[in-house]
Design brief:
By secondary structure, the protein is α/β, with parallel strands linked by helices. It contains 5 helices and 10 strands. It has a single domain, classed as 3-Layer(aba) Sandwich (Rossmann fold), CATH 3.40.50.1580. Strands 1, 2, 3, 4, 5, 6, 7, 8, 9 and 10 form a 10-stranded mixed β-sheet that branches. The chain is globular, with a radius of gyration of 17 Å. Bound molecules: hypoxanthine. Hypoxanthine binds next to β5, β9 and β10. The site of hypoxanthine has 12 residues, from β5, β9 and β10.
Length: 259
């Protein structure tokens, strides 16, 4: 069912790999509790579809960034369209979820990390709204890429529900879709990165350009390349995802009622 804008909703969740539906029991069969808002943007021919659903009785918007069937690889996601649509819908806060590889030896598969920094190693992505076609200010302050209040809330609520999380970490955002070489991971380690994923940027910067508070929960799904004797396989990643996303959902449930 399609609905019109609900001005009461100002929080959105962006789901990553394995996280295609906000409430898992709706994965097979959509119910009338999911409604949709189709938003036209200057960046796509097709409108961006926002799902509107309740998490613990709080209504939020939800976008699965890879699409519900995981058809969009990290470098093909239209980050600008997604962020624009959320802004148009009145969203002021975003909690994003990302699957990542662990570089820091303490960040094992299954760990949750709330990063406080990011290094952007991506290339060729449409990474800004400031393309010379409008008069918006074009140099955002990005010293601290994640919203401090949202990060504090995620960390505090995790403590409240006794869910272990790492309260800081540097996110290396690589281009993908291939995984990294062992040498690339050693370089990221020397750069001070703790986790590596492919979808952290330009999402975080675009949110800042639109003045939307943004933070993310990352779930470590594999040791990064060359850091374990075992090869990285999608089957192993899927297993960690299905267990770890239960923790992510618990944390989201605890946080949304406070926002
Ligand atoms: N590297 C990059 N992106 C990822 C990884 C990784 O090891 N695991 C999950 N997303």
């Amino acid at each position: 069912m399609s609905v019109s804008l609900n001005p009461a909703i100002d929080l959105a969740i962006i789901g990553g790999s394995g996280f295609y539906h906000l409430n898992p029991h709706r994965a097979d069969k959509e119910t009338q509790q999911t409604t949709y808002l189709d938003i036209t943007t200057p960046f796509t021919n097709e409108p961006i579809r926002l799902c509107q659903e309740a998490v613990n009785t709080t209504n939020v918007y939800f976008i699965p960034r890879h699409g519900v069937e995981h058809t969009l690889p990290p470098h093909k996601i239209n980050y600008r369209a997604n962020l624009w649509a959320l802004k148009e819908a009145g969203v002021q806060k975003i909690i994003a979820v990302n699957a990542v590889g662990g570089i820091n030896p303490k960040m094992n598969p299954g760990s949750l990390v709330i990063p406080d920094q990011i290094i952007d190693y991506t290339w060729g992505r449409e990474h800004s709204f400031f393309d010379g076609l409008n008069s918006l200010h074009d140099h955002i302050d990005f010293t601290y890429p994640y919203d401090a209040q949202l990060r504090d809330l995620l960390i505090e609520e995790a403590k409240e529900i006794e869910l272990p999380v790492f309260g800081k970490g540097c996110f290396a955002c690589t281009q993908g879709p291939r995984l990294e070489t062992a040498a690339e991971i050693q370089k990221l380690k020397r750069d001070g990165c703790d986790i590596v994923g492919m979808t952290g940027m330009p999402e975080a910067a675009l949110a800042r350009e639109l003045n939307i508070a943004y933070a993310c929960i990352t779930l470590v799904v594999n040791p990064a390349a060359g850091l374990s004797k075992e090869t990285i396989t999608i089957d192993k990643i899927k297993k960690v995802l299905s267990e770890g996303l239960q923790d992510v959902r618990k944390l989201l449930g605890a946080c949304v009622v406070k926002l």
